[in-house]
């Protein structure tokens, strides 16, 4: 078997050399070989030289029946039906003494590339042929009688009763046989007949014009026969014969779209499934965009291209109509239901599909296999519109996809007919809000590149922009992305509220710097609890952020401003026992002896011009009534001595007018483990000059 295969490959290589553009091979029947073999010669010719030839239109027949011929001096195998034509034609030398074009011999059938190049030329091949010869096969039964009868002029058949006299007679039976030949069931012949300028029908040795058969069959269908005639078997069989189906399609072919041709020739057959499309390309005038013969093509890809082209010409009104169209195409090719929905042939998209985990969003129309992914995959934009119109893909999906961080899917959804990128869901979120809140920087980046996005759009409930949400979430990278967008604008509300929020994060220094660099922040702006960014940073022991804030200059920042609970930054630093921040505050002029009586005045001064009024909560536990009291809680005495050295007044009164140190000395328990009294412990912490109340 291997040797035989090698022999065939050698033969093919010898016979079928590469053809230049617009070149074909033509065949000539030569005199018989020494043993009566059919001998032929195959030569290349350019179509542009307008060679004279007859193009054969025939059915290949069964591959199990084959014969040998001599082609260019070498043995070549052909199917028996072709061998019978060649044998008949050599006996009609005067009629077939010239060149022939026969696809089985003039195209290298074992080379898909050669087939693809020649199929593209077939419209020109059949249109340019001097004659397109239909070969129905050898004489069989009473076929010669049928050919003689059909050759009669039209005037004969139009005469009264002549056509009626055929039925039930040998002539009618013979015509039925001609109209039922296997040839008429082959799809490729439809294009060949339609393209031919001069078409003839050959059966055995007899030849008639196709026009004679065509007019006879049209007349049969135009007549209104009697019930007796209509009951005749031959009449019914001819009216529904394969030959009539071809003639009817030729007559009705006002719709020359590829779709219309496929639907009209659905009863015809091909050996290769791809040919159900390729066999009609030569006569289709519309609906064949992006389709070229390719015998490695994927069937789902090819059929979806046919469908997409048809939708460009005539858009479907419903998705049920689309599903029905898919079923029709699948049935024409004889493939399984649902085959058209297989995502096949686009490796890049398939990888994108996997990477984006699009299977989480099926967007499937119930009762069908129509999904958004199928429509995107094959470019069915009309289907996408229909899916949106009936709510298979709700607007809220945009927000959900952005929330999940699926940038690929989000872009696909937005690309469909200009989806509203700023659409808010029931919770007041637009896609940019969701992407920002969930830290999906790649989604934010993609959205910010869209020309129609409103980067300043506020969240429905909080009134925050996406920039504010980024600060709230402590995402410096996304905040910087938004800030860098030329369309972004900081509003007054942002300048008043964002600094304290930024200072609350672990990366506060970077966020605070980002805000301060805008040059629009009010460094003394406060949160809802009256805390400035400095308060928050001190409370969090964030030395880097404190240094950044104080580095803006003492003329801008109020270092002694208390919050709503009366706590100053120095108070908070003392409470946290953070010596480094305490020193830093003292270096920047904090009032170490600020009396509580002055708290309200300082606060009002710092808040001058604020739009909202907040209730001042000044009551504090006596144990935390002043910096002095907090300092005296330090067992080591280091902080108290440090504050005393900085000018802390030990005689400072608390909010109620009590002497804080004296009050503390009365209630503070002994914690040194040695039974020392509170008075003794406190004396060790006091400066050298003992106040009068301690003597």
Descriptive overview:
- This protein is α/β, with parallel strands linked by helices and 695 residues long.
- Among the domains are: 128 residues, no CATH class; 125 residues, no CATH class; 95 residues, Alpha Horseshoe (Serine Threonine Protein Phosphatase 5, Tetratricopeptide repeat).
- It has 36 helices and nine strands.
- Strands 5-4-2-1-6-3-7-8-9 form a nine-stranded mixed β-sheet, with helices on both faces.
- A hairpin with a 2-residue loop joins strand 8 and strand 9.
User: What distance separates the N and C termini?
Assistant: 123 Å
Determine the strand fraction and express it as a percent band: 5-15%
**Count of alpha/pi helices:** 36
- Radius of gyration, whole Å: 47 Å
Please give the share of residues in helix.
40-55%
Unreliable parts: 1-13, 595-625, 658-683, 690-695
Strand order of the largest sheet: 5-4-2-1-6-3-7-8-9
Number of DSSP E strands: 9
Q: Major sheet: size, sense and barrel closure?
A: 9 strands, mixed
Which structural class is indicated by helix and strand composition? alpha/beta
* 3D shape: elongated
Mean pLDDT: 81
Q: Outline of this structure?
A:
The chain has 695 residues and is α/β, with parallel strands linked by helices.
């Amino acid at each position: 078997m291997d040797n035989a295969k090698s022999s065939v490959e050698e033969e093919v290589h010898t016979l079928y050399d590469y053809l230049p553009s617009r070149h074909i091979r033509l065949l000539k029947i030569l005199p018989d070989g020494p043993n009566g073999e059919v001998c032929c010669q195959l030569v290349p010719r350019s179509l542009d030289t307008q060679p004279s030839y007859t193009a054969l239109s025939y059915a290949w027949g069964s591959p199990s029946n084959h014969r040998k011929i001599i082609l260019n001096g070498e043995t070549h195998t052909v199917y028996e039906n072709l061998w019978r034509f060649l044998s008949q034609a050599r006996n009609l030398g005067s009629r077939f003494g010239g060149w022939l074009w026969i696809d089985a011999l003039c195209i290298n059938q074992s080379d898909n590339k050669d087939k693809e190049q020649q199929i593209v030329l077939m419209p020109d091949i059949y249109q340019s042929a001097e004659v397109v010869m239909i070969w129905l096969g050898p004489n069989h039964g009473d076929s010669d009688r049928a050919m003689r009868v059909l050759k009669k002029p039209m005037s004969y058949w139009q005469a009264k009763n002549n056509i009626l006299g055929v039925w039930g007679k040998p002539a009618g039976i013979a015509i039925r046989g001609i109209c039922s030949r296997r040839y008429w069931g082959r799809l490729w012949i439809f294009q060949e007949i339609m393209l031919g300028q001069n078409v003839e029908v050959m059966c055995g040795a007899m030849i008639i014009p196709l026009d004679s058969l065509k007019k006879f069959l049209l007349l049969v269908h135009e007549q209104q026969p009697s019930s007796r005639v209509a009951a005749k078997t031959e009449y019914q069989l001819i009216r529904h014969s394969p030959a009539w189906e071809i003639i009817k399609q030729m007559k009705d072919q006002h719709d020359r779209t590829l779709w219309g041709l496929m639907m009209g020739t659905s009863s015809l057959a091909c050996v290769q499934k791809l040919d159900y499309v390729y066999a009609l390309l030569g006569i289709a005038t519309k609906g064949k965009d992006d389709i070229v013969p390719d015998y490695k093509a994927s069937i789902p890809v090819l059929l979806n291209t046919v469908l997409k082209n048809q939708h460009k010409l005539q858009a479907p009104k419903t998705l049920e109509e689309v599903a029905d169209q898919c079923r029709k195409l699948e049935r024409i090719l004889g493939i399984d239901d649902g085959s058209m929905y297989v995502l096949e042939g686009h490796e890049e998209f398939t990888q994108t599909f996997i990477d984006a985990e699009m299977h989480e969003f099926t967007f499937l129309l119930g009762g069908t296999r129509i999904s958004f992914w199928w429509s995107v995959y094959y470019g069915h934009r009309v289907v996408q519109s229909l899916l949106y119109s009936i709510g298979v893909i709700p607007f809220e999906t945009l927000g959900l996809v952005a929330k999940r961080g699926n940038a690929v899917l989000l872009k696909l959804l937005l690309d469909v007919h200009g989806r509203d990128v700023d659409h808010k869901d029931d919770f007041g979120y637009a896609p940019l809000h969701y992407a920002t809140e969930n830290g999906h920087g790649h989604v934010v980046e993609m959205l910010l590149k869209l020309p129609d996005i409103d980067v300043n759009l506020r969240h429905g409930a909080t009134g925050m922009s996406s920039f504010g949400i980024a600060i709230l979430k402590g995402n410096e990278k996304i905040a910087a992305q938004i800030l860098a967008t030329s369309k972004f604008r900081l509003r007054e509300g942002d300048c008043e509220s964002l600094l304290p929020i930024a200072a609350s994060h672990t990366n506060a220094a970077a966020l605070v710097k980002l805000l301060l660099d805008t040059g629009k922040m009010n460094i003394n702006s406060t949160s809802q609890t009256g805390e400035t960014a400095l308060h928050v940073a001190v409370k969090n022991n964030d030395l880097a952020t404190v240094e950044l804030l104080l580095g803006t200059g003492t003329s801008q920042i109020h270092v002694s401003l208390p919050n709503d609970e009366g706590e100053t930054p120095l108070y908070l630093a003392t409470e946290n026992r953070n010596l480094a921040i305490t020193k830093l505050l003292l270096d920047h002029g904090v009032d170490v002896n600020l009396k509580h009586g002055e708290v309200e005045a300082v606060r009002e001064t710092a808040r001058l011009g604020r739009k909202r009024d907040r209730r001042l909560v000044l009551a504090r536990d006596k144990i935390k009534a002043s910096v002095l009291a907090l300092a005296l809680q330090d067992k080591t005495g280091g902080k108290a001595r440090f504050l005393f050295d900085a000018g802390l007044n030990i005689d400072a009164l608390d909010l109620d007018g009590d002497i804080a140190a004296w009050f503390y000395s009365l209630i503070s328990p002994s914690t040194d483990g040695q039974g020392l009294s509170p008075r003794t412990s406190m004396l060790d912490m006091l400066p050298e000059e003992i106040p009068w109340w301690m003597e």
